[in-house]
Every structure is written in C-alpha cells, then in structure tokens.
Specification:
256 residues; alpha/beta; seven-stranded mixed sheet; 8 helices; 14 strands; globular
C-alpha cells in the first residue's frame, strides 16, 4: 500500500503546512484518512478529489476534519463532475455524531443549520469496533482516549498493516492497534514530561515505547504542532525505539 502525507501539523495548520490528512492507496483504490485544515488543497496536487473512493475520519476535532466543508462544496457544486455525486455518494466512516456535527460546521446560519443534511453527496457509516472491508483494505477501528469520541485505525491489505493512532493519550488499546504493524503512523505532539495533560496526546518517548512494545517495522511520527520542538520529539522516539524512525513531512510518500 502507498501512504501519502497530505498534512501532518498537530492541532492547527502551520505556515504553508496543512493539518492532519493522509491518502492510502492499494489496487487502484484511494482511501482518505482524516481531512484537516488545508488538506483538500494538498489532495488536489495528488488526484482529483472525485477520485476518492472512501473517507475515514478518526475523530471530529477541526484539525482532522475541517476541510470536510470544502469537500461538500466541491461535491455539491462542481459544474462538471465526472459522475453524479448524488447517485454515487462518497462513503464516510466516522464517529457517530459526524452527520450532525459536520452539517453544523457547513451551515452558514441557523436557519440552514436546521435543514442541512449532507447525505445528498455523502453516505455516512458510524465507526465502532466492527471490522470492515473498505475496498482492498480490512479496516479495524480501535477506540482510544481523547476528549471526544476517537479511534485509531488499523489498515491491512494482504499481509501488510498500517496502524494510525489518530489523536490519543496513552492507553492499553494502542498496543492492540499497533501490534506487529509494518508501519505505525503515530501522533507525537510534545516532548515527555510529568506535567502533560492526561488522555490527550503522546510524547515522543511514549510513541517510541509503543513502537518498541508492539514490535512494529517502522515508526512514522506525525501531528507535531508548530509550537513544539519536532527534533526533540524525534530524538525521544529514536531513543525509545530500536527500529527505523522518521518524522513525516507534507508531501512525503511511503510504500508499505
């Protein structure tokens, strides 16, 4: 499978840098994973957004889904779509409140918010622990700890697995998510310290320790906020994990 980094800034976009969003491809199938601020612009440098076959949203914080409103405009109002977006709705797998919350974000005023329903161009499916087949991928959502309903996502095709933490604090579920993965795309939002808030994010040390325990093939660090020291986070992860470790960059492509 091929992983393209559309954006990897944590919490908000940085200068010329989009927030969280990824494209995973296999057998001609294009799966979007998160669509944070600025990622729709980046997606258009890779493919026509109409070529997305499905979208997974790990959770509903804006830095992971803000560009869903822009995608709605794109699918509703494009003057020359390659197919009818209302007859071929985009499957969206997301937390159960997604249809309401995303409609609220899209509607420009209260009267429209009461009537807005995005199901004309999207087909929503609530995430749970249910294992799904999406195109060529076996998709295993794993609930993680965060201030809102949030999931890590395990994608398997054949004998290859990519595990993505989404946003999460340390929890036992992460070991299940990452176990034996060929690549772990892991958030690391700050350096390690005793004063970090619980159930929110991982440090570089915690990301590295998770990768070591889970015996993953490669650790890919993401979701580093512009105000954090990315090099220090990377150094922490490298000290804790004996395998190859990299801080991902926008536009980077990985063959997994």
């Amino acid at each position: 499978m091929r992983l393209t980094i559309l954006g990897c800034c944590g919490s908000f976009p940085g200068p010329d840098a989009a927030a969280s969003g990824y494209l995973v491809e296999a057998e001609g199938f294009r799966l979007g994973v998160d669509l944070g601020n600025g990622t729709l612009a980046r997606l258009q440098t890779v493919c026509d957004p109409f070529e997305l076959d499905a979208l997974v949203l790990s959770h509903l914080h804006p830095d992971h889904c803000a560009d869903f409103s822009a995608l709605t405009v794109f699918r509703r109002y494009h003057p020359n779509p390659p197919y009818d977006p209302r007859r071929n709705r985009l499957p969206v797998y997301a937390p159960h409140e997604a249809p309401t919350r995303l409609a609220n974000a899209y509607a420009p005023h209260e009267a429209e918010r009461r009537d807005t329903d995005l199901s004309d161009v999207f087909e929503f499916h609530p995430l749970s622990r249910e294992v799904r087949t999406i195109g060529p991928f076996t998709v295993t959502p794993v609930p993680v700890v965060h201030p809102t309903e949030a999931f890590g996502i395990r994608l398997t095709r054949g004998g290859t697995t990519l595990a993505y933490t989404g946003d999460t604090g340390p929890c036992a579920a992460l070991d299940e998510l990452a176990d034996g993965a060929d690549a772990l795309l892991c958030e690391a939002s700050w350096t390690h310290g005793p004063d970090r808030p619980a159930d929110l994010h991982l440090s570089g040390t915690q990301a590295g320790e998770l990768a070591e325990r889970a015996k993953v093939g490669k650790l890919l660090l993401t979701h580093v906020p512009p105000w954090s020291d990315g090099e220090a986070i990377l150094a922490e992860a490298e000290a804790a994990f004996s395998g190859p470790t990299e801080r991902v960059r926008q536009g980077a492509v990985y063959e997994i």
